[in-house]
């Protein structure tokens, strides 16, 4: 049986950090699906047509540190409301999820749309203030200047757009386990998630 772990949740909840740690622990491959939307967002900022960019996206485009900026995140959340963009990215994600050896995918709609039959679904969340503070610290620790209030506003605007769009809105799947990490360190969140997944893993 193929093992797929779906990790969904709002911006800066710690999905990527957690998913990477889970993939290392269980020996699974990891796909940060936000990078797909970020790559399309970056293509649009460069003057491309969102649907065309999504339909011709090459996996190599995901390996680009320039996708990490707030401007690209904002552009990503704007193109992520377009149904044809989302549709163009489905096969790549499902093929990744179906690989032998297990996979962890993190995003917004993995448990609800991309992998409704995932072995384990986690919904990772934290208060908007906590999440904005994490993003702020990431930028400051990377030597960049950052504005706390602007980051909080950006995180809230993106959450709002992600949760209220018509196609694949951000919401926990009915069978997802919610992990609120507001008062957890990344290591504590990792330990909780490993326990949740281990309990639900098929025997053998
Ligand atoms: O992928 P997502 O945007 O959800 O979050 P991330 O890129 O993993 O960033 C989360 C940030 O919060 C990282 O700097 C983590 O070190 C930190 N963090 C965490 O991931 N989990 C916690 N429980 C506490 C802090
Ligand atoms: O790292 P962070 O959580 O801030 O953002 P991300 O996961 O890189 O996603 C950037 C944007 O892409 C999100 O705000 C969503 O609008 C969109 N996205 C999506 O719609 N569906 C996914 N499976 C992943 C990301």
From TrEMBL:
Protein name: Cytidylate kinase
Reaction(s) the record says it catalyses: dCMP + ATP = dCDP + ADP; CMP + ATP = CDP + ADP
Domain of life: Bacteria
Location (main, coarse): cytoplasm
Residue stretches spanning the membrane: none
UniProt-listed Pfam families: Cytidylate_kin
Residue ranges of every copy of the Cytidylate kinase domain listed in the record: 5-45, 65-197
Species whose genome carries this gene: Loktanella gaetbuli
Cellular compartment(s): Cytoplasm
Lineage: Bacteria, Pseudomonadati, Pseudomonadota, Alphaproteobacteria, Rhodobacterales
